[in-house]
Amino acid sequence: MRKVLGALRRADEDYHMIEDGDTVAVGISGGKDSMVLLYALHLYQNFCKVRYSVRAYTVDLGFTDFDISVIEDYCASLEIPFTRIKTDIAKIVFDVRKEKNPCALCAKMRKGALFTRIKQDGMAKCVFGHHREDCLESLLMSMLYEGRMRTFKPNTFLDREGITLLRPLIYLPEKDIVSAAKRNSVPTSKNPCPASGVTKREEIKKLLAHMNASNPDASDKLLTALKNTAQYSLWDPPQ
User: Fold this and answer.
1) Tally of CB atoms within 10 A around 156
2) In this structure, what CATH number is given to the domain that contains residue 17?
3) How far apart are CA 27 and CA 32, in angstroms?
């Protein structure tokens, strides 16, 4: 967990994520990213410069084969309060709307359910387990499919929701999450979504892997470019 905690601490200090007295709500899907994040935030409490507490939330989309007990038991082992948010999102997206590209609508509804509940519980900070590759994949998807350069930020205030969204694993390579999960026996719950593994993001994931195969520093350079605003040189409109 050394690399995970090192990346988390650097992101926290760079972007002033966690403040003294915070209670942060961690969005848990059951996948390796969010489960490792939960464990890292649990450990980080031991040496963070400020005092904070952690609560875990899972949005249950309504799939019948989703084993949420894995998440419940792991939260209990870490003595982290856990809340299950029951929804019919899966039914709405796949049965009612019959979305051909379901991810965008599902994500919007899932976040809406999560943010509504954590606000009801009196919290204003939500933490997601997005890592370095997630950020770079979003950048490439935006460029190739939308014709614009954008990706999510490490620290974002969502004024409509009144929620600050944090991504403290933004510097962490996905391979280090995989390694941490194995070494520390972090459990995961299988994603039951029928669209899993067949999205445009999966295509971009393969493209990024190909780039790193030919240039092992590709992901590092892309992340550096995102932060290197001092040498920004794109086509601004003429004055």
Assistant:
1) 13
2) 3.40.50.620
3) 12
